[in-house]
Structures are given as structure tokens and as C-alpha cells.
Design brief:
The complex is a heterodimer of chains A (about 475) and B (about 500). Chain A contains 19 helices and 2 strands. Chain A has about 475 residues and is mainly α. With about 500 residues, chain B is mainly α. The two termini of chain B are about 35 Å apart. The chains are: A mainly alpha (about 475), B mainly alpha (about 500).
Chain lengths: ~475, ~500
């Protein structure tokens, strides 16, 4: 009875109800988000046992071209992704309340409605059974997040949101769409399958061009040189950055890339040709460059943004090495990074709400005033760096295993170098927040945290990071079922 | 009754035009209801004919029961049956929409206006239904003459624009007539079916070649295909609102239909693509048309004018698709005739609503337009999304087939031109969205709070509703793409390729 279309339409219905309720009854309006989130999460849990037993639910809604439907399936990878998106939507909404109300932001109804539509689109991407359906929801996500990025409606927001759409629409129409039509023209199908769809009849040159078109066409994945929309989009309110630019939007990008690599090309084809190496090189360049740029950023949100660009490249790199373990690890890393990065964004926002500070140089001694926030920040950065006892360690472990499996030792070196860089750009923030002499400290020795709705979510997701270190069996099981199951 | 549906469809607006002139003399108020009723009858008849074609295959109708080569024959096959429905339904919706707009813009000319309005629809329907090459010319002239007048109603700058249009339109019609003359001399018939049978053996004839070229050139002028597009922009921009809404979506599309009809039914794809084999030159011209149209649209500061250049670009889509010389391209072109008719209708109706309330459509003064006219802008957004090609609107699907055709034919420049035009449309669209969000286009600092208390001042319901119906149809056509392709376009493709 639980059904992918039903789940994604719950979020759409919530958006509609939010618009109907309007600005005046804000408590009722926000409760729709939580109700919808709760029901969707329940629905996903209902789908879980079947998927763990190896069943794949398929549902076709409408035929559009010969062999191409608007079709959904509930496969392990999609379910894993849907869990993350919906699961993190709920704390983010709590956080949104804690962030938007004290700052007296305008147009909150539009904000929450667009948020719900974006989640609906994300779930749609997660459950898409073919490339066409995925593309449809991918575009819906770009359009529905535009008002969120442009939220402040000032000159900066105009610039950021212009960049946002130019990059995302430009690449999806200019690169991904022709690639999709090419694939359809060559094979007559767009349905994801573990074996890939090409079946060997495609020339190597064409394969490489398709790979490049897809990798860059889904620019939400932030591969350089199409990454600069992401730091630009940091003009959005922080909860938007948190969910959309650490979880939903960028993860939809890497999810789409992973789907194409595993479901259109197929791991075997990648592993058996130069495609794997080409993708690895592109991802590695992004990985190292982004980490280096992150080091130089003083704005906390911009540093986090470049860190995200780097971490997304981890995920693509993990899949590009084209070993079973590597692909599983990159699926896990989607989850682990989501928890870590959302914690960090929550903290950045909480700091802004409590102190109005945006720059790292202004955060010396901040641990004295906001110990809990900075503790969460510490745990989140551990997870992103990939140190125990956090979930990030698990996925990085498997990422390295995957690279070794594929005999790509240089990829391991890239991972390690980048991890050192990650530590170099995160840990000093924490260190200087807690350990500094009283003269250097810019804050008084008195605890003054952000309001509770802005404080609880980062603590929740931070404990999530810790718990995932111990309890990641289900996630891992899903990843295992998804590839090579 | 239903056996007479083909002729009823044409006769209803024709008779209405006489009644409107007569009655409208004394009671101008009655002219609008008469026009609407006649168009409704036309729509119903066209839907009936469409169903007949779907269930029984192509239909023939002999006017006055004169047999084929001697009398005038109406031929309704899959291709034009859907076009007829599109024309009559869009015309009906525009007629409903026109009421308030015409009352405001031309209060003392109601009777004259609606007489010409229904006559134009008669002409368009006639062009699409007739199976006779000369009859087509006559109807082409009826449609053209009425559209000149409908545009010139606005006075002012529209007079000069109309003069341009009259010049170009007449040249186009002359070319067509000359071409038909050549074919008549060689074959001795004007009936299209007959022509095609005789022409098979005349492929080597120079006279036939000249005839073909003249007909195609004539239609290019009529549809404003680059480089003979110059007349279109001003004519459509300065026309009265209702005229633009009727002429822009239908007139050019019908010309494209005639071109495809001549290419596939009078001549054959074998003749056009294999014997002549300069079709790729035409595709290159189409690419240029798309680029030029898009660039010109991008450089406009006035919304209505911007839309007129988009029409020029869209013509490039259809001509290019039709001349790619493969089934996918032809499918895209024919599907796009329907899709584009709906798309342009939706956009021009939205623009018309803005003109009704706002007076003009200069982009610089459209501050707060989203709050002021939410429903109008909703329709506009849907129309623009279709222009960009965002699924599930119909614009996406035509682009899909056109791009597939371009890839199949190896015409990469055409594919790039299509993608370029999508991106330009996206930029134009987001200019409007930015005006909604940031109040202004320029570099001045926007203030998020200043345009919040704009009161809603929506255009009248009789204008907004028809527009929203068309906007809904954009999504509907998109969703039923596979049916439209398999039921309507596939029979045409399999018959010609």
C-alpha cells in the first residue's frame, strides 16, 4: 500500500497546505511540515522490510515515449537516499523555525512551501526508475529551490540566484539532455539496470563523450569547473544551505551521477575501460582543488561550501573506481557526509543567530559562549574528516578499501591527502574556539546559546554522526543490496 | 449530420461573418456572441471529424458532390484533423478572451472586428482542410487579407507594420500561386492527390522543380522563416491584443502545415530528400533562424516584442525538423505545430492580460507584476516553461524529437541551435522572474520590502480563464504525447517515409 508516488505527493500536499494556511497562523503552518515528514518517514519504514528481503517494487505511471515511462521503483539505493532526505528534513524544519523567527525573516510561507516541494522532488529523484523520470524531478528541484536561494531578494541574492540557475539549468539543458537523447537514440531505453544499457555496441569515443556530458551535465554534483554556483548559493538563509546544499540539492547531483554510472554505464563497463580512470581523474582534481580553496576561506559558510564540493567529489570518486566495495562506500558516504555537513551548517547558523558573526576570524574563544554548539561542530567536523568514533570514518574506510580493490593506489593517496587538508581547515576553528588565552578571546565567559529550536537540531544530528559509527548495519545492508547484492 | 461535419466546420464561421455584419450594424453587442457560437459549432464539428479520422482513417468530402479532379475536395487525414481541432479550439478560446480586450481597445468597431475575426478562422480552417491546391491559394488570401485588417485596426505604428506585412504577404502568395501554375501546366490538375500521382513520373522536370521551389519560397515568406522574417515582429507587436493572440499562434503554424503538406502529400519525401537532396542547406538556414530569433528576442526590452521574436525562432524549429529528412525530425516538426500553437497562444494571452491592466509591457516597469496579477503570471510561467522545454510541458517533447532527429541526421549545428534557444528562453524567463523577486532589472539595489503591499489587480476573468485553459492544455498535450504521436503522427510518418 505504501508507494513511492504516495510518499512524494505527501510532501506536495504539505506544500499546498502551507500555502493555504498562510502567514497568520504560523504554528499551524509549520505543523504541516512535521506531520508530512512524520508520515513520509513512517511510509519509508514500511517499505524497508520488503527491500531488505530483496524485493523491488516497480510502478509505471504514464507512457511518454516508446519504452520510456514516467516510472518509479523502490530499490535499496533509492530508499537509502530517500531516508536521508526525509529524515533530515524534520530536524531542518525545526531548525528553520529557530532560525527564521528570531531573525524575523519575510515570506516564510513561500519559504516553507518551496522547501516541501524541494523535498518532494528529491524523493522523486530517489525513486526514479529511469533517466527520464530522474531528469524531470531534477529540473523540478532546480526550479523549486530558486525562491529559497533568492530568499533575501537583495542585490547579493540576485547575483547568487542568477548563478545558481545559470549553472544548473545551463548544464542540465545543454549537456545532460542531449546525452539522455543520445542514449535513448542508441539503445532505445533509459531504464536503469545493473548491467548498463549499452551492451557493448558503442564506440569508445562516444562512451567517453557521454560520460563527460553526464558528469558535468548534473552540475548539482559540483564537479569543477561547474562548482561555483554552490558557494554563490550560500546567500540563502542557513537552513536552506544546510538541507539543500549539504543534503538535498548536491546529493541529488551525486545521486544522479551514481545512478548513471551504475545504471546506464554499468560498473563492468566502467571497470573494463578507460572510463573509470577518466572519471577518477576529474573527481580527484576537484577533490584536491576544493580542499585547498576551502583552506583560504574566512567566511564560515563559504568554507563549508568548498568542503562540500570536495566531499561530493569523494562520492563520485568512490563510484568511479568501479569496484563493488567502492560503489557501496560512496553510497554510504552520501549518508555519512549528509549527517556531518548538516551539523556543521546548523552550527554556522546557530552562531549567526546568537552572535551575528559569519567569519572564522571572529570566532576565537567562541567555545566559552556556545559550548554545546561548538561541541556539535567538533563532532560534525570529525565525521567529515573521517575520524572515529563518527560515521564518516566508516565510509572513508570502505572508500579506501574500494580503491584498493580496484588496484588504484593513487586514489588512496588522494583520499589521504585530502583528509589531511580536511583536518587542516576544520580543526583550527574548533581548537581556537575552545583553547585560547583570555586576552585573545573575543567572547565573555558566560554561556549564551542560540534559542532551543536552533540548538537541538545540531545536537541531534551530531549524535546521529556518533550513532552511525556503531549502528550502520541497515545502511550498509542497503548499499550491499544495491550493488552486487 | 456528422457526414456534413467537415463542411459545417468551415461554413459556420463563414455564415456568421455575414450575420455579424448585418446584425452588428444595428446591435454591435450581438457580434461577439454570434462569433463565439459559430466558433463553438466549428470546434464541435472539428472534434467530430477528428474522432471519425481516428476510428475510420482519412476522410474525403466532395464539395457540392462534384467528384474529385473537377470539384473541390476536402481531405482530412491524421495530420490535419488534429490541426483543425487546434485551430478551432484556440480560436474559440481567443474569441472568449477577446471580448473585454476588444471592447476596451476598439469600442466602436465591434461588428467589423468580429466579422474579420471569424473570416480569418474560416480561411485558416479552409487552408488546413482543402485538398485542392488552388482552393488553398484562395483561402490563403482570405486569411491574409483579414489578418492585414485585423492588425491595422490598432492604428498608429501598426499601419506601417501592416503595410510591410501586406507587401511581404502578397509576394509570398504570388510565389505560391506561380508555383501552383507551373504544376498545373505540367499536370493539368489542381487536386493534391491527383497531383501527387502524376508528379511521380515528372521528377526530372525542370518546370516541376521551379514550381516546388516557388511554393516553398512562398510559404517561407508567409511563415516568416529567416531571412524573410522582417515583417513579423512589428506586425504582431503593434496589432490589437486579440488579433495578436489569434494570428500569432495560428497563421504561421498553418503556413508550416502547408509546407509539410506540399512536401509529403503533393510531392514525396523521396523527391524532396533523395532527388533534390539540398534539404541539409535548409536545416542550416533553420539553425540560423533559431539563433537570430533567439538573439533578437534576448535584446528586446518589451515583452510583447520579445515574444514575437520567439515565434521567429520557433519557426526555425519546425522548418528545420521537417527538412531533416528523417522520421524523428518530421515527428518533432508536426508535433511542434500543435505544441507551438498552444504555447504561443498561452504566452500572447498572458501578455494581453498585462496590456489590459498595465497598458504596456515594457520590462522596466513591470515591478510587482507577480503580486498584482498572480493568475496571469501563472499562465505565463507555464507557457515559458514549455518554451524552455521543461518536462512535462509539451515544449519538452517536441524538443526531444527534434534533437533526436538532429542527432540521427548528424546535424549537430541544429541540435546546438535548439539547445541554445532553450537556454535563451530560460534567460528571458528568469528576467521576468527576477522582476518578480527583485522588483527591477537594472543594477539599482532591490528592496525586498517595498513591493509587498501591491494590491491584486487581475485582468477580468473572461480573459484569464481562457488563458489558464490553454496553459493547462500545454501540460495535457505533454502528458498525452505518446498517444498523439502514435495515433496521429505515426500514420503520417509511416505513409511518407
Amino acid at each position: 500500500m505504501w508507494h513511492p508516488v504516495l510518499i512524494l505527493s505527501i510532501a506536495l500536499a504539505a506544500a499546498f497546505l502551507i500555502l493555504l494556511t498562510g502567514e497568520r497562523r504560523e504554528n499551524l503552518r509549520e505543523s504541516w511540515t512535521f506531520i508530512a515528514g512524520g508520515i513520509m518517514l513512517y511510509g519509508l519504514f514500511q517499505l524497508l522490510p520488503g527491500v531488505l528481503n530483496g524485493q523491488i517494487l516497480r510502478h509505471s505511471v504514464l507512457n511518454v515515449f516508446p519504452n520510456v515511462d514516467i516510472a518509479f521503483w523502490v530499490d535499496p539505493f533509492g530508499l537509502l537516499f530517500a531516508f536521508i532526505a526525509v529524515g533530515l528534513w524534520i530536524p531542518t524544519s525545526l531548525y528553520s523555525i529557530g532560525y527564521m523567527r528570531p531573525l524575523k525573516e519575510h515570506a516564510q510561507t513561500r519559504y516553507f512551501a518551496c522547501f516541501a516541494i524541494a523535498i518532494s522532488a528529491t524523493v522523486g529523484v530517489a525513486f526514479s526508475a529511469n533517466l527520464f523520470t530522474l531528469y524531470l524531478f531534477y529540473e523540478l528541484l532546480s526550479l523549486s529551490t530558486y525562491p529559497l536561494v533568492a530568499h533575501h531578494q537583495d542585490a547579493q541574492a540576485r547575483e547568487g540566484s542568477r548563478k545558481y540557475l545559470t549553472y544548473l539549468l545551463g548544464t542540465s539543458i545543454g549537456l545532460a539532455l542531449p546525452a539522455m537523447i543520445l542514449v535513448y537514440g542508441l539503445t532505445g531505453t533509459l531504464t536503469f539496470s545493473e548491467m548498463g544499457v549499452f551492451g557493448g555496441g558503442i564506440s569508445a569515443g562516444l562512451q567517453v563523450s557521454l560520460l563527460l556530458l553526464f558528469l558535468f551535465g548534473f552540475a548539482k554534483s559540483g564537479l569543477m569547473p561547474f562548482h561555483s554556483w554552490l558557494p554563490g548559493a550560500m546567500v540563502a538563509p542557513t537552513p536552506v544551505s544546510a538541507l539543500l546544499h549539504a543534503v538535498a540539492v548536491v546529493k541529488v547531483g551525486v545521486f544522479s551521477v551514481l545512478r548513471v554510472l551504475t545504471g546506464i554505464f554499468g560498473i563492468d563497463l566502467l571497470a573494463g575501460s578507460h572510463l573509470s580512470t577518466i572519471a577518477c581523474i576529474i573527481a580527484s582534481i576537484t577533490l584536491i582543488t576544493a580542499s585547498l580553496i576551502a583552506l583560504t576561506q574566512d567566511s564560515l559558510k563559504r568554507r563549508l561550501a568548498f568542503s562540500t564540493v570536495g566531499q561530493l567529489a569523494y562520492i563520485i570518486l568512490g563510484c568511479s573506481v568501479a569496484s563493488i566495495v567502492g560503489v557501496q562506500a560512496s553510497m554510504l558516504h552520501i549518508a555519512m557526509h549528509a549527517f556531518g555537513k548538516i551539523t556543521l551548517f546548523f552550527c554556522a547558523g546557530a552562531i549567526f543567530v546568537a552572535t551575528g558573526k559569519k567569519y572564522i576570524s571572529q570566532m576565537v574563544g567562541l567555545g566559552k559562549q556556545m559550548p554545546w554548539t561548538m561541541l556539535a561542530f567538533f563532532i560534525g567536523s570529525l565525521s567529515v574528516i573521517g575520524l572515529p568514533p563518527t560515521g564518516g570514518f566508516i565510509s572513508k574506510w570502505y572508500l579506501i578499501m574500494g580503491a584498493l580493490d580496484a588496484d588504484k593506489v593513487w586514489v588512496v593517496v588522494v583520499y589521504l591527502v585530502s583528509s589531511i587538508l580536511n583536518a587542516a581547515y576544520f580543526l583550527p576553528i574548533v581548537y581556537r574556539a575552545f583553547f585560547c588565552s583570555d586576552e585573545d578571546s573575543q567572547y565573555k565567559d558566560e554561556v549564551k546559546e542560540a534559542p532551543l529550536p536552533a540548538l537541538i537540531p545540531p545536537l541531534l544530528t551530531a549524535s546521529g554522526c556518533l550513532l552511525l559509527f556503531y549502528y550502520h548495519d541497515t545502511l550498509f545492508k542497503l548499499a550491499q543490496l544495491a550493488v552486487g547484492g | 449530420m456528422s457526414t456534413q461535419a467537415p463542411v459545417l466546420m468551415i461554413i459556420a464561421p463563414l455564415i456568421a461573418s455575414i450575420f455579424i455584419t448585418l446584425i452588428g450594424w444595428f446591435r454591435p453587442k450581438f457580434s461577439h456572441p454570434i462569433a463565439v457560437i459559430s466558433l463553438l459549432i466549428s470546434s464541435i464539428a472539428s472534434i467530430q471529424v477528428f474522432q471519425m479520422v481516428l476510428s475510420n482513417g482519412p476522410q474525403q468530402y466532395f464539395l457540392g458532390n462534384w467528384p474529385a479532379p473537377f470539384g473541390i475536395e476536402y481531405v482530412i487525414d491524421h495530420l490535419n484533423s488534429l490541426l483543425l481541432v487546434t485551430i478551432s479550439v484556440v480560436a474559440t478560446l481567443v474569441a472568449l478572451y477577446a471580448k473585454r480586450s476588444v471592447e476596451k481597445e476598439l469600442p466602436d468597431k465591434l461588428a467589423n472586428y468580429y466579422t474579420l475575426f471569424v473570416l480569418l478562422v474560416t480561411g485558416l480552417l479552409g487552408i488546413s482542410i482543402t485538398g485542392d491546391a488552388f482552393n488553398l491559394y484562395v483561402l490563403l488570401e482570405i486569411a491574409a487579407l483579414t489578418s492585414y485588417a485585423l492588425i491595422a485596426f490598432a492604428k498608429g505604428r501598426s499601419l506601417m507594420a501592416t503595410f510591410n506585412y501586406v507587401m511581404m504577404g502578397s509576394i509570398g502568395a504570388c510565389f505560391y500561386l506561380l508555383g501552383v501554375g507551373y504544376l498545373f501546366i505540367k499536370t493539368g490538375t489542381l487536386n493534391m492527390t491527383n497531383l501527387s500521382q502524376i508528379l511521380v513520373s515528372l521528377h526530372m522536370s525542370q518546370a516541376v522543380l521551379v514550381g516546388f521551389v516557388l511554393i516553398i519560397l512562398g510559404m517561407w515568406v508567409k511563415m516568416a522563416f529567416f531571412p524573410v522574417h522582417g515583417w513579423l515582429s512589428n506586425a504582431y507587436t503593434y496589432a490589437p491584443t486579440a488579433s495578436t493572440c489569434l494570428i500569432a499562434p495560428l497563421m504561421t503554424k498553418v503556413s508550416v502545415y502547408v509546407m509539410i503538406r506540399v512536401m509529403t502529400s503533393v510531392f514525396s519525401t523521396e523527391y524532396v530528400f533523395n532527388h533534390l537532396s539540398w534539404h541539409l542547406v535548409v536545416v542550416a538556414m533553420a539553425s540560423v533562424a533559431i539563433l537570430v530569433g533567439s538573439m533578437m528576442a534576448l535584446s528586446q526590452r518589451d515583452l510583447k516584442k520579445c515574444m514575437t521574436y520567439l515565434v521567429v525562432a520557433e519557426i526555425g524549429y519546425m522548418v528545420g525538423g521537417a527538412w531533416l529528412g528523417n522520421p524523428a525530425g518530421m515527428t518533432g516538426a508536426t508535433y511542434h505545430i500543435i505544441a507551438d500553437a498552444a504555447m504561443t497562444a498561452c504566452l500572447f494571452m498572458a501578455v494581453g492580460c498585462i496590456i489590459y491592466k498595465h497598458g504596456h509591457t515594457s520590462l522596466d516597469t513591470m515591478k510587482g507584476i507577480f503580486r498584482k496579477m498572480p493568475l496571469t503570471m501563472l499562465g505565463f510561467v507555464v507557457g515559458m516553461l514549455s518554451m524552455i522545454g521543461v518536462p512535462p510541458t509539451c515544449g519538452f517533447f517536441s524538443k526531444w524529437y527534434l534533437i533526436s532527429g538532429a542527432i540521427e541526421a548528424g546535424q549537430w549545428h541544429f541540435m546546438l541551435a535548439l539547445l541554445f534557444s532553450s537556454l535563451v528562453n530560460a534567460i528571458i524567463f528568469f528576467r521576468i522572474i527576477e522582476i518578480g523577486f527583485f522588483g527591477s532589472l537594472g543594477s539599482e539595489t532591490p528592496d525586498p520590502h517595498e513591493h509587498q503591499d501591491v494590491a491584486v489587480k487581475e485582468a477580468p476573468l473572461s480573459m484569464v480563464l481562457p488563458m489558464l485553459v490553454v496553459a493547462g492544455a500545454l501540460i495535457g498535450i505533454g502528458i498525452y504525447t505518446s498517444d498523439i504521436i502514435s495515433l496521429v503522427i505515426q500514420p503520417l510518418i509511416s505513409a511518407t517515409f
